[in-house]
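Ticket #4471: structure export looks truncated?
Reporter: QA, pipeline team
Priority: medium

Steps to reproduce: submit the single chain below to the structure queue and open the exported record.
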Amino acid sequence: MSEQGLAAARETMEAAGVPPRAIEVFAHYYAELEAGATGMIPESDVDPLDPPTRLADADVADDQVREALARTVVIKLNGGLGTSMGMDKAKSLLPVRGERTFLDVVVEQVRQVRSTYGVPLPLILMDSFRTREDTLAALARYPDLEVAGQPLDFLQNKEPKLRSDDLTPVSWPQDPSLEWTPPGHGDLYTALDASGTLRALLDAGYRYASVSNSDNLGSYPDPRMAGWFAQSGAPYAAEVCRRTPADVKGGYLVRRKSDGRLVLRETAQTPKEDQALADDITRHRWFHTNNLWFDLAALAAVIEERDGVLGLPLIRNVKTVDPTDPSSPEVIQVESAMGAAVQVFDGAVAIEVERERFLPVKTTDDLLLVRSDFYDLDEDFHLVAQRDDAPLVRLDKEHYKLVHAFDARFPKGPVSLVDATSFTVAGDWTFGADVRVVGDVTVPEDGSPGTIADGTLLEGS
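Actual output as written to the record:
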């Protein structure tokens, strides 16, 4: 191990007030990184996931639902800035339904369940050092949200970016904040523990955690899911959906041959020679939604047993220290995936849920769809699709990739997509009010930049 590099990283983290257990987790990954760990999971080492229990088929009693909800906490991962979409604040503060942001919809979803079932149901965000201030300011609009004795958020840990040439902490005086990175959402478990939030929840009598991304509005707190999880007695459950050809890039569960445990395999953990089998949706039939449930007491026991180091598989993320400057020094960000914890728990299970539980917004293509009339926001603040098959949206990345550019080209609101099968935009077009897309429509590059007038019907095959 590079004693100089690790010592410098420890010193940097200690000076920044990073909790000791988080530093030990980083040291664990540092050793793996220097030893050449890649996190690869060969196809020969795993078997496909057996058909899981379907939530739609589960028998859950009403009294079990209420009892489970009374002991459940909702945790939302809220550390992302949406930098791939050109944002510089918490992605959850992006408007998605009129003036309502992701965060507004999440809050209302939780409040509806509280009101219907008469339960406290704390909502706690895992913020990063980049998202905390703006997020807490936004939550100030909801004075009834905080549950007595529980925080509104806890802070994801941070770690230094490491130079790829010598694994020492990078120096970037132009913007010292870029010298740091969150350690991936696998840090959830360490941050829960190190922040004292895990102990506070257990001491207050909470037992179950529902965890998902703040940009996935389909992952609302599902009372039936809470009842099923409590009834199952499992320490950990991963929500999975049937894969389609559009899902080949996501993570999915496999069963490790050596010990029979469930394991999450991400695209980055698949050897090139195994890629064809990995992409075969008839072989690996369910993908991980990144919605999961775990028993808080079981997590506390595993953390103590492993002295704070769960040992989730390493994800080696190579970047430049300034993501906007390709000429800046190359760095390695040491990360892990939240869903990888499935392999840590004895008796972890998967459960198949409907596709409506998976509605992430990763691009402006997704954003246009969730803002459009293809979805209706019902009285429980659930986004309800108007039909089974969502239209495929493909916007010219040169002109629509960044949110500010996207908004400038839809100044009067989204186009109507409720009758669309697909919507492709090539070139630079600005859309007026009440533009309606029907069938398969492609707006060609020829003639752009240009404007699609108010009230235009775009009709394809």
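Status: closed, not a bug. The export was complete when the record was re-opened. Leaving a note from the reviewer for reference: Residues 102-117 form the longest helix (16 residues).
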